[in-house]
Amino acid sequence: MKIILLILIYLAFISLGLPDSLLGSGWPAISKDFNIPTSYMGFISMTIAGCTIISSLFSSKLNKKFSTQTITIVSIFLTVIGLFGFYFSSNFHFLILSAIPYGLGAGAIDSCLNNYVALHYKARHMSWLHCFWGVGTIISPFIMGYALTSSNWHNGYLIVGFIQITIALILLFTVPVWKINKLLTEERTVSTGIIKTIKLKGVPFVLIAFFAYCALEATTMGWASTYFFEVKNISLDGAAQFASLFYIGITASRFLSGFISDKLGDHKLILLGISILTIGIILLFIPNSNIVSIIAFIIIGFGCGPIYPSIIHLVPINFPKEYSGTLIGLEMSCAYVGTTFMPPLFGYLGNSIGFNIMPIYLLFFAILLLIFIEIMFRLTKKNTSNN
What we know:
mainly alpha; Growth Hormone, Chain: A; globular
């Protein structure tokens, strides 16, 4: 039954990944349809991320009152409301409104499930959990590409909306499976204050590192399609599908890292990931080569793969377990601060200077990530000697 429960958790993370790549892959067509500047995608991503920050900060309190499965199911239905809102949108303002329920739902799923897996499963399961998030993000650009070819971007959101409903119903009808694991009730009794958690040695540094990583990932994820369209002069539907290259890289990496994560440990996996993604960023500096750019985005995704799940998984190892729920909620909040403000900033710079500045922008956050994650590991070294 525990295996079935793990499969259900993986399925929930597919549902988390499905909408994440829709906006970026469909945005060139959306902005053209509504006759709005390309940089306006930042307002929508800011709304989504702002709502995820709110739900992430309250995730620990939600876990005290409700079970993980209840939070997950309700949250998926919230994302469905957002997706259908995008489908029915006839103007930019309705897109902003529809982003609210999606953001609230995504933040709750992310925080609660990450905390549960970090507490009760080994590192490989955390890698594979986020691998299934990648499966969802890979599927969506192809759905959007199909929708753009056969009809319009609205239908891309409609298709994903129905997939989300199916996943939510599966989770709803399998609630008894969740109840088998008694640890689900135990986790709701653990909660600590935000201020007290932030004062722990090393916490501010891991939060900044997570912010930097998510800024890098979200910028790549959200603007890859626009980069191919604006810089490489690839068609709208082609650019939407090429956006999946990053997700292919990140998903393959998380699948493979699951086999070595328990042996290498979180620290080595993070350093390995940073090294690989830096190579991909450097390749983007090579001009006038679409093939090299395609390879570069796959490599960047491959490097990103183990970083996010490793930073999450190290929480109950590097810090007292009773702080896990609150700290992971804080990490999710910092993550979404990065995804809220940094991709829109890139959009502004792209419109002002040119979208070919992407490799410089990404390299800055890669360096920031490396510096602060190393400081965190040095401050908590006595707790990570097994890594």
